[in-house]
Amino acid sequence: MSHARKTFHLNAFLMGVGHHEAAWRHPRTEQRRVLDVKHFQELGRIAERGKLDSVFFADGLAVGPRIARNALAVFEPITLLSAIAAATEHVGLIATASTTYNEPFNLARKFASLDHISGGRAGWNIVTSGNADEAFNFGYDAIPEHARRYDRADEFVDLAVRLWDSWESDAVVLDPETGIFADPEKVHTLDYRGERFRVRGPLNSPRSPQGRPLLVQAGSSESGKEFAARHAEAVFTAQRTLEEGQRFYRDLKARLPKYGRSADDLKVLPGLVPFIADTEAEAHALEQEFTDLISPDYALRQLSTLLGVDLTEHALDAPLPPLPRESDIEGGKSRFTLVKELAEKEELTVRQLIGKLGGGRGHRTFAGTPEQVADELQAWFEQGAADGFNIMPPYLPGGLEDFVDRVVPILQERGLFRTDYTATTLRGHYELEPVESQFTPARTQATA
Amino acid sequence: MSHARKTFHLNAFLMGVGHHEAAWRHPRTEQRRVLDVKHFQELGRIAERGKLDSVFFADGLAVGPRIARNALAVFEPITLLSAIAAATEHVGLIATASTTYNEPFNLARKFASLDHISGGRAGWNIVTSGNADEAFNFGYDAIPEHARRYDRADEFVDLAVRLWDSWESDAVVLDPETGIFADPEKVHTLDYRGERFRVRGPLNSPRSPQGRPLLVQAGSSESGKEFAARHAEAVFTAQRTLEEGQRFYRDLKARLPKYGRSADDLKVLPGLVPFIADTEAEAHALEQEFTDLISPDYALRQLSTLLGVDLTEHALDAPLPPLPRESDIEGGKSRFTLVKELAEKEELTVRQLIGKLGGGRGHRTFAGTPEQVADELQAWFEQGAADGFNIMPPYLPGGLEDFVDRVVPILQERGLFRTDYTATTLRGHYELEPVESQFTPARTQATA
After folding, report:
1. What is the pLDDT of residues A132-154, one digit of tens each?
2. Which residue among A2, A151, A219, A404 is least enclosed by CB atoms within 10 Å?
3. CA–CA separation, A414 vs A408, rounded Å?
4. How far apart are CA B132 and CA B127, in angstroms?
């Protein structure tokens, strides 16, 4: 075992009883667990057993077309992760939350709370909510424009960081003799007046163990990549081939210097949906079992929403009809383009496309032995396509257990992954530097 | 022990290391626990050991004038209660949240999550946020008008209830054979269009164990009382004498019939700050120790905010200056009037008033033996001033432990309080009927 080799990072992307859209219909899962917090606490403990960097929950603010056919997210992620924090000690906890439909003060505070509660394990996957069904739940008649959502997200994150920074790390004095709770010189009123937000501050929460949550992002459109280069410390991305992964990796890292950041400041984590079995043939057979359980009517509605065309009456064994251009899409642009290119490049029928997307909605699916899965991860890592991986078990908890108990030991043996936690915070797991409040040096200068 | 006797309800109102504003300076507390989630999980377990109905956290969305002198709330209550849910099994979990500075969809969902996570133990203390410092954190230049805040709260709660009702209790089918996750006939689009909110719905969370959180309210102004009569199932209130308590109790219960509700549908819980010791003299001495630790400068700033006049330069041993009328107060009207009347009736100097308010900010403080505390509660309950009590331990955890281990057994011996939990939900603890979705009968009729 070589300890000199550079190691990578692993996030477990958790969803109900699995990422495969038919997971809850397969005998390897228990459907009712989608409603049971203990299921998710157990997943957190399994991830921790594998020394994973973090667990992560996606989120959407609407039911959409899922009602009849698919198990939706039952729990709001921050609330759920607080309960998981109470059942774990080390693993990072990344919650998705929208900059379009939250107030900066409230959201900054919730993440500060989660970071306090978890002892410094909170992460925020920043999304701009590109789904029309979400807009309808917040007083809009349509999705706010893509550019407008990203502009708001930029200002939102800047403001949230100021709120987290509003308490310097040594502001809390708690001296019972003098009766001083906090040093007012180290708690900063912001008087923030931006284009969209006016917030006086400070935040009503002392600086949390990490200072701020790990900032994560997952959009791969042009504005998504710029946003990631400016703000994100980890990026989840859907890349289907090594070459595409390498291109995305180089592209994103090249954008960092203009924001004064270096390559190590942002970790790129492509998604992988692993079907794991003793032999390659068994792994493929397992994947096929899940594919066979997909409901075409549900899949067509999902695909229609994603592509912005109505496919619900479209023939399953025909190719896709003509699609709009990415510039006309107001929702998730990068996922649109990924699916469009996949269908065109591989000349897929709608039925074939649905099967390909069923595992991870565009993320790469890989079926193989534990060694083969480890080989794939190693190749992507060593050939410049990844700093780590976003593991999306197709069924839960079994798919996560297989990865943790069968793949992780191989990675550890090869010196590619930690054998125990060496840091106490999520930022520490991802080998990121601690962050100081932006107000600390200013004060030091003023009193010098 | 008589089991025939009607029993009352007990809520533990938790705050940092105690309700007394100088609690964190007293040797009976450990200051650093205000930052430690384990402290709050322990408090939940202590409350559960005493078979209490619930624990409750207040909240405000600003630091205000507290920074230097007082330990503020570190945690956002819903996030905190989710971590407490993971450490307890029975006790109800009531979180304060504002209708003025939240989106209905987001807040309804968070409470649905907490109710799912806790197995039906969530409660919502509905507040309208009457503090100017809060307004400044949400883009306002001043507190939104009292009447406007209550109008918004009315619409907010109506809409939140519809969102919770949007999934009928048997909507989730989860049939792996047919691939049906939920019955679309039992999941309701709302298309809500009110004066302030437009929300399509349904909520993105199946109906939670209680259907909706227990609805709690604590304002005692005229609009506060009407709001409580219309929506609340439990009311926290500050009443200083038995006679005032009886008057408030009769007043509130008399308002229920016009909303089609009966006296049992709303539980009145006056606050009590108990100093408990072996002898009455020791209990009074203990209270005095806490009073002596109050910082006058901090207390004057708090009192200035509450009364709407600047007292920070006012002589401590003089009476209060002339005060505004309640109708000119845009913040918390009932607390203003309570403090004004207390000062006038008892002809208090500012220093005396600060001492009286230090324990529970206007709530009744009582120092005595465990038997005397039990006698007080029994008297208020049997003489028509209370359905239960909001116990506000002046220091924590010791003050809660003393109440649970020394007062509760006496109440149980007298047949006034349960000796074990008999219900599984918070609504059950408070002897309230389960609630059905408002859409259930409509559908039944439509298909009949």
Report:
1. 999 999 999 999 999 999 999 99
2. A2
3. 10
4. 14
Mean pLDDT of A90-117: 98
- How far apart, in whole angstroms, are the C-alpha atoms of residue B352 and residue A103? 41
Cα B130 to its chain centre, rounded Å, is 15
Encode pLDDT of A43-69 as tens digits: 999 999 999 999 999 999 998 766 766
Top CATH class of A9-280+362-447 equals alpha beta
* Residue in this structure with the two tokens 């009476």, named with its chain if needed: B319
Q: Do A176 and B25 touch (CB under 8 A)?
A: yes
* SS3 (DSSP) at B358: helix
Check CB contact under 8 Å for A80 and B179: no
CA B448 to mean position of chain CA atoms? 42
Cβ within 8 Å, pair B117-A73? no
Measured in angstroms, the CA of B160 and the nearest CA of chain A are apart by 12
| Binding-site residues of A for FMN | 59, 96, 146, 150, 220-221
Contacts B117 to A, Cβ<8 Å:
37, 75, 79-80, 83
In this structure, of A42-46, A118-122, A257-261, B184-188, the range with the lowest mean pLDDT score is: B184-188
**Can you tell me the distance from the alpha carbon of B405 to that of B407, in angstroms, rounded to the nearest whole number?**
6
Locate A13 and state its tokens.
């992307």
Picking from B14, B45, B3, the residue whose alpha carbon sits closest to that of residue B273 is: B14
Angle at B212 between CA A80 and CA B99, to 5 degrees: 85
Nearest residue on chain A to B176, alpha-carbon basis: A25
Rg (CA), chain B: 22
Crossing angle between the packed helical segments A104-118 and A146-165, to the nearest 10 degrees: 50
Percentage of chain A beyond pLDDT 70 is 95
Supply φ then ψ for residue B107, to 5 degrees: -70, -40
Q: Tell me the CATH number of domain B9-276+363-447, given options 3.40.50.280, 3.20.20.30, 3.40.50.1980, 3.40.30.10.
A: 3.20.20.30
Q: What are the start-end ranges of the E strands in B82-232?
A: 92-98, 122-127, 172-175, 180-182, 192-193, 198-199, 214-217
- Average pLDDT over chain A reads 92
R_g (Cα) of chain A, nearest Å: 22
Beta bridge partners of A167: A187
Percent of chain A topping pLDDT 90: 72
- Encoded tokens for B107: 């807040």
